[in-house]
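Morning. Coffee machine broken again, so started the prediction first thing and wrote up yesterday's gels while waiting. Chain of 282 residues, entered below exactly as on the submission form.
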Amino acid sequence: MPGIASAATSVVMAHIAAGTSSIRVGAGGIMLPNHSPLVIAEQFGTLAALHPGRIDLGLGRAPGTDPHTARALRRALTSDVDAFPRDVLELMHYFSPDEGARVRAIPGEGQDVPVWILGSSLFGGQLAAALGLPFAFASHFAPAQMEEAIAVYRHRFRPSEALAKPHLMLAVNVFCADTQGEAALLSTSIQQAFVQLRSGKPTQLPPPVEGYMATLGPAESAMLSQLMTCTFIGTPDDVGPALHAFAKKHGADELIVTSQIFDGAKRLRSYELTMNAYRRAG
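Came back before lunch.
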């Protein structure tokens, strides 16, 4: 997809993990319908062997592609609702030591790779609960079913070897700057990109535009109003307490923050301000 470095997730993760020493590096995520479970187990088993205790694997159900691309990937898109759960279980099996198995993932076998279920609807919450796995909800772009999915996940959760109780991560958009005006301007890049995406014309992340919202019609404005329910824009004094309140309200154990800011330096600055503000507010 234009503007998102998602074509080779494990390669990007390897680069990030090699350039850091302590942070966890996770996939958010691997759209499993596009991949063989064995290949993903081998890739993430290799990452875990190279960077022990630092690799997480997030699995999503959406193919995120079209039939032509699926054919090029040598994958067949299917409407079988059981295919994704089966693939998740198959992948998890490859991480379990089983010297008698006819097919083994080496060095994936025996590696400690936490598996997360990703979702933007009720299905992900239901599956994560049934398998006793941590659940990450894509509230940063699909907040409509967030509260219902959280409730389903908690109500139906079954303890497993991986997890004794529910563990929830929520995704948020954050645009943090020294002034409210600058933060608002920076946020217009994602607003433009989202409108383009929902209009069927995905593009690379565009530069910010003054007064962008004023140029939109009612349909585009309504589209963005939903996106903004899990978007935080402002100074550190605004963002830190607001993120804490959001996490507390929904019982999130973790937040995953995305700041789609056109200027790389300003994006890093936003993350730095956000991190420090969140620590102070806590």
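The beta strands are 25-31, 55-60, 115-119, 135-137, 168-176, 231-234, 254-258. Going to sketch it on the whiteboard this afternoon.
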